[in-house]
Amino acid sequence: xxxxxxxxxxxxxxxxxxxxxxxxxxxxxxxxxxxxxxxxxxxxxxxxxxxxxxxxxxxxxxxxxxxxxxxxxxxxxxxxxxxxxxxxxxxxxxxxxxxxxxxxxxxxxxxxxxxxxxxxxxxxxxxxxxxxxxxxxxxxxxxxxxxxxxxxxxxxxxxxxxxxxxxxxxxxxxxxxxxxxxxxxxxxxxxxxxxxxxxxxxxxxxxxxxxxxxxxxxxxxxxxxxxxxxxxxxxxxxxxxxxxxxxxxxxxxxxxxxxxxxxxxxxxxxxxxxxxxxxxxxxxxxxxxxxxxxxxxxxxxxxxxxxxxxxxxx
Length: 314
Ligand code: SF4
Fold this sequence. Notes:
- By secondary structure, the chain is an alpha/beta fold.
- It has helices spanning about 5-15, 60-75, 95-105, 125-135, 150-155, 165-175, 195-205, 225-230, 240-250, 280-295, and strands at about 20-25, 80-85, 110-115, 140-150, 180-185, 210-215, 220, 260, 270-275.
- Iron/sulfur cluster (SF4) binds near residues 30, 32, 45, 50 and 88.
């Protein structure tokens, strides 16, 4: 293994060639925006949600997939594709619409679907439909859950509209099916410390999230977070601190968990602050370089499960 368990390598081994996730944009919203469980959304979420590089949500799904396949396939030399429902909450729609959407995706040659949603939008009726779909079309399913942090005090501060319990419930529900789980985390929420970062890694290990996807917090213009940032009510950690948080997270994370990203990409045009004005790949490479130099690897501090305290008696 390299210093961490990389998604691209994992996919290549699993499917035998290069695989790429292609974004599919649906005309959905989010229960934390429409008043069902909150208004205004998470304090860091812009009007267009969390997805960039998106096609028009009203463009036909098959057309979105085919257009993205030909563009991304050429650009990244990918042979296989996963349809990625990225923006907003993609299980937050009438069940008939969900079924119709899946049927369309089923009739394309993608190898699977990644459904991004909120933990409080996981329901067995939708999961049952997904299971039948996966069996009918012989495609893989990954449920991507936005958690951001296990620190439920911070979740309240970012107006998530759910706490840690809903995430735990979602994971336990999804685990009853043959689906993978990807958990999204932000390692530099202004109220979180290194202790929270370690707890994030430990919880992912214990819950056996198939994948994790890390993001650095960016400040999108005209959000609640932007106001707090401009008023000096929140401070962001330094880039060096972010790198140390990622390194520590990886060291505490089980080596079996596949890491989709160490840092996200956000277009500067929408943001007041984004990745310390440094390219994501430079930050990525610095992290890998430091881990290599110090002989650190993913999971080298993952020694806290399976009755650690009692092991001396065995
Ligand atoms: S749950 Fe996702 S889409 Fe909804 S407000 Fe929060 S970040 Fe935005």
